[in-house]
Amino acid sequence: xxxxxxxxxxxxxxxxxxxxxxGRKSLLVGAAFGTLPDLDVLxxxxxxxxxxxxxxxxxxxxxxxxxxxxxxxxxxxxxxxxKGVTMSRWSVAIFLIxxxxxxxxxxxxxxxxxxxxxxxxxxxxxxxxIIDPAYTLPLVLSCIALCFARMSPYAQxxxxxxxxxxxxxxxxxxxxxYHINNKIYQALNTQNITFTHFESTPxxxxxxxxxxxxxxxxxxxxxxxxxxxxxxxxxIQFYPTKNALLTKINDAKQIxxxxxxxxxxxxxxxxxxxxxxxxxxxxxxxxxVFSFVxxxxxxxxxxxxxxxxxxxxxxxxxxxxxxxxxxxxxxDL
Length: 333
Description:
Layout: H1 3-22, H2 25-35, H3 48-54, H4 62-76, H5 87-106, H6 133-149, H7 155-190, E1 197-202, E2 209-215, E3 219-226, E4 235-240, H8 253-261, E5 266-271, E6 274-279, E7 283-284, E8 287-288, E9 291-298, E10 301-304, H9 317-325
Helix pairs in contact: 1-2, 1-5, 1-6, 1-7, 2-5, 4-5, 6-7
């Protein structure tokens, strides 16, 4: 999730576990530890592909967080203001702040290596967009209220209510995904479309309109479906890709990393002389957020590239269309 969401979630969890001891100081503690796992973006893992794949690995591992929490607690107890909380309570609170960060990231489509180093599998429920105001707003409002609440008897109630509301929104995301997937499968079956890999994820800033990708050997289907759509309104478009090009260079470490991390949901494109791999899960056709130049074609031969990331962003004018498409299946995305 985005940095603001992780800050306010960390603050809410910290206040729930430490608020009666530290009061508003717990909000700062939660904000700091809620941000900590994402500082792995400051580490250069060796290249653009490695930085993409190894983000949300060791720093988001539940095992590492469990081991590090007592150490962080021990360091905090060196400070006078923290000595009113026991070592065990500090350890539990820090672990809850760190682990809820990782578990929330797991609800997005990116992939979070929760079991590193035992497994490098990028877990992803893919039921909420990386930025979703409906999830974040209750936590933000609660955090603002707690900044002025001091030790009010209503403070914990406000904080708990915000956590419950945001958690219920995650439950809604599960339900919406189940509903959307059923609808999409019906639409694909009516057209006798089969695929080797499939994933659905909410479109930006909402959980009412969803985008799905179904990958075949020849290319992929990009699918849009709203919770309000009938099966006949599900929009399915096919886009050919050139995945066969990888047979000439697929022994490269970076290509293997991308294939594994995307769980097969990738497309290969050729732009002029450049061969590009795009993660089909994030973005939309023609504007994928994570695309890497993996080779260049010269004299009918493929020469491995520098694996640099291309700079692609979702066009802002698409946001208006996305919200319009929620209720109008005639909108062309």
